[in-house]
Predict the 3D structure of the following.
Amino acid sequence: MSAETTGPEAIVQVAHLHKWFGLLHVLRDISLTVQPREVVVLIGRSGSGKSTFLRCLNFLEQPSAGTITVAGNRLHLEPGDRPARAHVAALRLCTGMVFQEFNLFPHMTALENVIEGLVTVKKLAKTAAVPIGERYLAKVGLLDKKDVHPIRLSGGQKQRVAIARALAMEPQVMLFDEPTSALDPELIGEVLEVMKQLAREGTTMLVVTHEMQFAREVADRVIYMEAGAIVEQGEPDVIFTRPADPRTRQFLERII
């Protein structure tokens, strides 16, 4: 296992990434490069490894082998390696994660949820963290809910607070793991609109989603995964209208 700093070219570089859960080979030799300001959308059947891949990028799941570089922070793992906490922490500070479930602290207000990482991880004084938290709540259209507890928020509002919480840490890359899958249909649009605005502003994003219209409109690149491997990738118009691999074509025919 080794860690080092690399050059500024690609903001995310993944090389020969593998993940096993026991005997189950969940990620199979994945290599991927993401450029600054690029929006990459990962699609595929449930169980294809998309969410596991995102979770490996910030070590919520420890990869079994391979190299991950985010914003110049490189971590290489051989089978059996245990990465140093400092190396993992450096990678995590570069990424903001938005989950399927909102994972808000129920005893904290919206603002307290947003600033928690600033205070506990970045060690900012609360007086310094509050204006940052308010700025990002305003960004997602929820400054008026800053003193409200999650139980009094809709699902869409909770997810927007979760996005504000991730943005407040000012990561170089945003990771979205099916951010609308737990929402009622009428609430999905408000979350997707926030994500579209982030894309328009040039936020580097990796998104796992089943929202194909979002992928068509927003992605710079769409990746189709199956059985833990990247099958095909390309511009949305190409992937959705003339996919080269029959597995991609079969998947899209079933859901579109």
About this structure: Residues 185-200 form the longest helix (16 residues). The longest strand covers residues 24-34.
